[in-house]
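User: Design a sequence. Structure:
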């Protein structure tokens, strides 16, 4: 496939209420009313960005079952992050990519937001995850990861066509969000598909959305501030390949070895 039809769902979230959030997303997905390839939900889409990890669920929990059901029913991938409790009782902010056939990929957020004490409640992941889907290679990132270009860098070893990033990024730093999304697209010559929430959370922090599609040249294809929005976009692999052929900057890129934080 040369094109991928992507749906971004920018919405408020019911604070620490998984059942209400799943019902809300069920209705929003049902209303799309056309065949698409991927539906992208925000970070911690079942709870909001909560530190109440008693709400974390197992891999056979309601949210995972719901994602499998939605992906199969609508024959589309469903992705977004949620708090996940592993068999060792480690809790991760885990980005799940659920395929239509019920198989999935999981990326654990690497950069935990220590300013908000996320690192006191969640465990950091250390694995790069690139999903192969319908001819596209898709790098998964979560929120604060956006600030760290080395972690996100497209390399010979970790090549991809698009970054998909989900977030609960606050309004007070909205300009950072917008600029960094463009920077990651430009430096990696890749699409960036970014979904952020809107509205006030249970900590009285407001979120202004600005969910975005940025093309490999850094152009803003779509950006929606403040209000709820369900939008459909097409990302095109020919645009990626042609631009990388016309302007092959990666040929001059430095090779490096990444040393992860302990």
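Assistant: Done.
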């Amino acid at each position: 496939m040369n094109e991928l039809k992507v749906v971004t769902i920018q919405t408020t979230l019911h604070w620490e209420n998984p059942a209400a959030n799943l019902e809300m997303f069920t209705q929003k997905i049902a209303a799309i009313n056309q065949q698409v390839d991927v539906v992208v939900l925000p970070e911690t889409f079942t709870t909001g960005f909560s530190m109440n990890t008693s709400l974390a669920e197992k891999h056979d929990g309601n949210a995972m079952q719901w994602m499998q059901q939605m992906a199969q029913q609508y024959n589309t991938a469903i992705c977004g992050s949620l708090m996940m409790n592993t068999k060792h009782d480690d809790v991760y902010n885990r980005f799940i990519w659920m395929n239509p056939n019920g198989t999935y990929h999981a990326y654990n957020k690497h950069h935990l937001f220590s300013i908000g004490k996320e690192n006191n409640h969640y465990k950091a992941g250390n694995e790069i995850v690139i999903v192969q889907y319908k001819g596209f290679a898709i790098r998964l990132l979560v929120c604060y990861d956006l600030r760290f270009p080395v972690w996100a860098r497209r390399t010979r070893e970790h090549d991809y066509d698009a970054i998909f990033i989900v977030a609960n990024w606050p309004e007070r730093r909205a300009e950072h969000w917008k600029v960094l999304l463009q920077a990651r697209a430009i430096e990696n010559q890749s699409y960036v598909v970014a979904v952020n929430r809107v509205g006030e959370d249970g900590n009285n922090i407001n979120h202004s959305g600005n969910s975005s599609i940025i093309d490999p040249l850094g152009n803003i294809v779509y950006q929606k501030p403040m209000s709820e929005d369900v939008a459909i976009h097409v990302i095109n692999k020919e645009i990626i390949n042609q631009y990388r052929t016309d302007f092959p900057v990666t040929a001059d890129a430095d090779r490096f070895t990444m040393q992860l934080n302990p």
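The chain has a mean pLDDT of 97. The helical segments are 18-30, 62-74, 149-152, 174-188, 237-246.
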